[in-house]
Design goal:
- This protein has six helices and six strands.
- The protein is α/β, with parallel strands linked by helices.
- It has a six-stranded parallel sheet with strand order 1-6-5-2-3-4, sandwiched between helices.
- Strand 2, helix 2 and strand 3 form a beta-alpha-beta unit.
- The longest helix has 19 residues.
- It is globular.
C-alpha cells in the first residue's frame, strides 16, 4: 500500500519538466495541481514564468488540465487567463477527477503525467488512477490548515521510505 504514495519521479519545480522530453516519452497530456505546484497557495494569478511554461507545452501540443481541491472561484480565476481546462473541488486523492480530466483530453493513461506537490492528494490520487506521477517540491513552506496536517503525515511517510531506501531524495 505504501508504494501508492511514491511518485514515479521527483523534481524541484515544474520548470524541470520540459515538453520535448515529455514528447520523447510519448506524453501528450499533463494533469497538474495548482496550489504550491504552479504558484504559491496564496497567489491568485500565474507568474510570467508559469505562463511561459504553459505556452511551451501548448507549442509542443501537450494538453494541460488543472485539477484542484480548491473552490471554483480560485481555480477559475487562475485557469481562464491561461485558456486551460480545470476541475475544481476534485476530492483528490479520489481518482474520479483524474479519470475525468483524461477523458476530456481524449488521451490514454500512458500518455499523461500527473504533477503535484503532495503525496496524500496528487501522487496517491494519480497512482490510484494509474498515471505516471511526478512530485515537485512545494513552492512555499506555508500551507492552508488541512494541508499542514497532510504535510505532517507526508514527512512520516517520506522518513520511513528514506530509511527503507525507497527514495533517494528528501524534501
Amino acid at each position: 500500500m505504501l508504494k501508492k504514495f511514491l511518485p514515479n519521479e521527483h523534481v524541484e519545480t515544474i520548470f524541470d519538466i520540459h515538453p520535448a522530453l515529455l514528447r520523447k516519452k510519448g506524453i501528450k497530456g499533463i494533469i497538474t495541481d495548482l496550489d504550491n505546484t504552479l504558484v504559491a497557495w496564496d497567489v491568485k494569478d500565474a507568474t510570467p514564468e508559469v505562463i511561459q511554461w504553459f505556452e511551451q507545452m501548448k507549442e509542443q501540443d501537450i494538453k494541460v488540465t488543472i485539477i484542484s481541491n480548491n473552490k471554483q472561484e480560485r481555480v477559475k480565476l487562475f485557469s481562464e487567463p491561461l485558456d486551460t481546462p480545470f476541475v475544481f473541488s476534485a476530492r483528490k486523492p479520489l481518482s474520479q477527477a483524474f479519470k475525468s480530466a483524461a477523458k476530456e483530453m481524449k488521451l490514454n493513461k500512458e500518455e499523461i503525467v500527473v504533477i503535484g506537490d503532495q503525496l496524500l492528494t496528487d501522487v496517491l490520487g494519480g497512482n490510484f488512477a494509474g498515471f505516471h506521477t511526478i512530485l515537485v517540491v512545494p513552492i512555499v513552506q506555508t500551507d492552508g490548515k488541512i494541508t499542514r496536517i497532510n504535510r505532517k503525515i507526508e514527512r512520516r511517510i517520506l522518513s520511513y521510505m528514506n530509511k527503507k531506501g525507497k527514495i533517494s531524495w528528501e524534501e
